[in-house]
Design a protein that fits this description.
mainly alpha, single chain, 0% strand, 90% helix
């Protein structure tokens, strides 16, 4: 039992390390991730400044994190596409465009939540 628990702790620690490495790599190379992070910091500040319910705050914070997750996944898609298809290819472009559209939809969801919360 002790070995099982130690193994799970090691796996969790490795997962945290790999996730941090991914964040740092994307942060260093992706201006859009830095921009969305700034937007999220401003959004979170506003969410805690305004008189919002706990549920409204949670929704705003969760959607902000989803935008960041979508941006990271989009970055991953772009990196893999660039390795597999270094030249111009319509399907490579489609994959990248779909990733970008996913980020846009997540951002629109966050914006829509703000509009509904602020204007009912």
């Amino acid at each position: 039992m002790r070995e099982l628990l130690a193994g799970e702790i090691r796996r969790f620690a490795n997962t945290c390390i790999w996730s941090l490495q991914g964040w740092r790599a994307a942060w260093a190379s992706e201006k859009s991730l830095r921009q969305w992070t700034l937007v999220n910091l401003l959004s979170a500040t506003l969410a805690f400044t305004l008189d919002l319910s706990s549920g409204e705050r949670a929704l705003i914070l969760a959607l902000g994190l989803i935008v960041l997750a979508a941006e990271l996944l989009n970055t991953a898609i772009e990196e893999v596409v660039d390795i597999v298809s270094p030249g111009q290819h319509p399907r490579a472009g489609k994959a990248k465009d779909c990733g970008s559209a996913g980020v846009a939809l997540a951002a629109l969801a966050g914006g829509a939540a703000w509009v509904v919360i602020l204007f009912g």
